[in-house]
Structures are given as structure tokens and as C-alpha cells.
Amino acid sequence: RLPSSGTYIQLGTRASFPGLSRYAPNGELTQPDSFVVTTHTQKGHPPVGVIVGADPRATLYAVYALLEKLGYGFYLSYDAHPKPQTGPFDLHEWRLADAPLTPERIVFNWHNFLSGCSGWNLPEWKLWISQAAKMRFSSVMVHAYGNNPMAAFEHNGQGSPTGYVASTFRGRDWGTQHVNDVRRLIGGGLFPAAVFGADAALVPEEQTVEAVTKLMQQVFAFAKSRGLNVTFALDVDTESCNPQNIIATLPESAVIASGGLRLPNPDTAEGLAYFRSRVGQLLQNYPEIDQIVLWFRASGTPWINLRPEDLPHAWKTEYELTLQRHPQIQQAAHPPGLFAIARIAAAFRKILDETDRPHVQLAVGTWEYGFLTAADVFMSRDVKLMSIDQYNVLAGEAQNIIRAISSHRKVIPIPYAQDDDGAYMGRPYRPFENFALLLQGSGSAGFGILHWTTRPL
């Protein structure tokens, strides 16, 4: 019931507070994540504030948009606060309506660096997620290498080999250097102990999988509590994500040979069971996942390097007919490998559907845009294509490539915010000018922003 006097705010969605829809008569609330903030007056009463969203997340966005209009600023690392105001509560600036220019807005983090999420505990993850919601992102995305402890799985009595989460004590790769005591470094007084790293990285090695899984379960649950979707990028093509000890338990009829390695054939009963274990255990650990991205490399890995003669006999006829129907891809990079990854994607879709998770979306992703044309030919139309724009070419050649595909399939470009490979210290890349127009002109279904650290941004 509404108060009989005083100043108050009506807040909700069209579904939770149907009476608020009359304050958006021009169709502002027809689009997901759209919202209206306004006021109305009744004779003899103070003005009433109205905040209404098309859905719950839109209502949250409306509150943050209103706060920005009132002087707040929301950034990846912090909030900017206006000076406190004195005087009576004032609703005169409460006039705004908005809707997203693009439906999918992903903030993407990547385990590698101690300056990024590899060094985070739950409070840092929560800050990142909270700020992403304030900035009106729609989804958080993380990536797992094949040996990342958060993506461990078992099959046929064998467990996948797992690595570590980097710290200053363990994990010398991607520019992470070891020191015997971080407190001895210049500025080392910032550190409370000899080793810097996430708490989950500092447990005994045999406890790493449990600790990292528990941390990420809390992370994804918190993302959901802030209205954000969860996208999980899962490596499928490297040696570490094709654990040979598990694949050795499969019969030869269910195995594909590539470069001295054995790969599970998803079109066989035993190969499908292997992938069913991987997908099932991932979603059992993280039921919040809304989207899985099968991640691969542009070259040099056993799946993408498959040759036509390596393909199973049952695939060869379909592959050759596809090349005849689409001669433009015969000169593209790695058509056999992309054909095979499309079979993995089809297996994932089958598993998701048969386990009553048809709502979980599926995508494939890698670096740059060269794979898009061939992937578009081989992949089912419901599979999205994601491309990391490492060299900021979205303003150039990528426009035509994406536009040719986006008429019938969702394509998501993911620009770098800053580089990695030891060059992630320093100022980020200069943002694109007219980014929204680039997305619109290419027909992109959304965008992601890939970052390694929060503070430089």
C-alpha cells in the first residue's frame, strides 16, 4: 500500500509493480534492460519518484543511471562520489529513460597475472562484479586453461591433471617471477606475508582444486545476485585440455590421432560420454553458467592442426561436400580443424539439451577474425562466434567480415583493454572512437571488453 503522505519512491518492474507501466506510455520498456525514471504528483501531495525497469536487472540499472545523473561516477576500480547536498529532498532531475544499444555487454577477465584475477580473493571478485553491474555490463566472463583447477573433471576413474593458480611462490609463466619474500621488494611493506597470491593459491597443492572451485562457486553466485549472466570460456584444443591419461581409457574406435596425441571423437558413444563428464561436472560445480564458450587457438594445437586425412572416415564425406558447396573456405586457415571443433560444439549442444539445460547458450571463440568465415560454414546457426580483437582492427577490415555473418548469426567482438605478454603494466589501449557505431555498422550482437588488471583502467 502506498503511503498516505510524505515523499516516497515507487520502484519495481512491469511484472512486480504493474501500475508503474503507465509512466512509460511510449513503449520504452519493450526492450530487455530498458528503464524509465520519472516523477508524478497528486493534488495535495509531494512529488513521487518512479523507477521502473523492463526486468529486474533493468531496475538496478535505472538506480545506477539515476545516481550518475545526481553526480556519481562508476568505474572498474572505484566509485566517484559527489559532494553531499543539503536542503530538502529534490526530485526535479528525475527524468530519464534508456535502453541498451546492444544486447550483450561482457566484461571478460583472464587468469594469468598476479595483477589481475589470479591474485584475487572473494572481496576483489565481488568488487569487480559490483562495478560491472554499475557500468551496465550484462555478463561476466572468465577463461579456464585446460589445467586450471576450477575446470577439473573425472572420467572412467581418471582425474584430469591440474596446475596451479599463480603466486610469487608457484607458477613461473606469463611474466610471473618468483621471489623468496615479497616483503624484501621495494614497497614490500604493503604485503603482510612472504608470499603474495590468492588465498586459494596458497593452500597445499592437494587442496588447490577444492579451494579454487569453492572460490569460483561464490564468485558466480555473487554475479547472479547482481543480475549478471555468467559466461565460461573453456579451452578445448590444447594438450592440457585433452588429458591423455583419461583419453587412454577410451577405445581406439573413439579416438582421433593428431600430432602424436589422442583426441576424443565426440560422434562416438565413448567420446560423447567423455564430453558428457566434462560438461556435467562443470555445470554441477557452477549451475549459474548461462553460456559456455569453446575456446581454441588460431594455430599450433592438436584440434586446429587436424589435416583432412586425420578426420574420421564418417566425417570425410560431409567435410568434402561442405568444401564443394562453399569453395570460398578452401583457402581459409585450418578448415579441417574448424570442422572438428564444430563437431565438439554439436556434442556440447546435445549434452546441454538432454540434461535439461537448453537455456545455456553456446559459443566458440579465439583470437582475431580470420576464423569467422570458415567457422560460420561449419557451426550450427545457434552457436555464437566470439573474436578477441587484440590489435584493434574492428574499425577496419573486421567490419565487412562480421557484417557478412551477422545477418544470420550472432558475432561478438572482444577488444583488448590492454596487452599481456609482459606488456600489461602501463596505460591501456586508446579506446575506439564511435565504438557504438562500429558495432552497429558491423551488425555485432554485442561486445566484450577483455582486461588483465583493474587499476590502470
Task: Considering the chains and any ligands shown, give keywords for the structure.
alpha/beta; 10 helices; single chain; 8-stranded parallel β-sheet; 457 residues
Mean pLDDT comes to 91
Give the end-to-end Cα distance, rounded to a whole number of Å: 45 Å
Share of helix, binned: 25-40%
Radius of gyration: 25 Å
Structural class given helices, strands, pairing?
alpha/beta
Count of individual beta strands: 18
Shape: globular
Strand order of the largest sheet: 17-16-15-14-11-8-7-18
Low-confidence regions? none
* H/E series: EEEHEEEEHEEEHEHEEHEHHEHEHEHE
Oligomer: single chain
Number of helices: 10
Strand content: 15-25%
Major pleated sheet: 8 strands, parallel
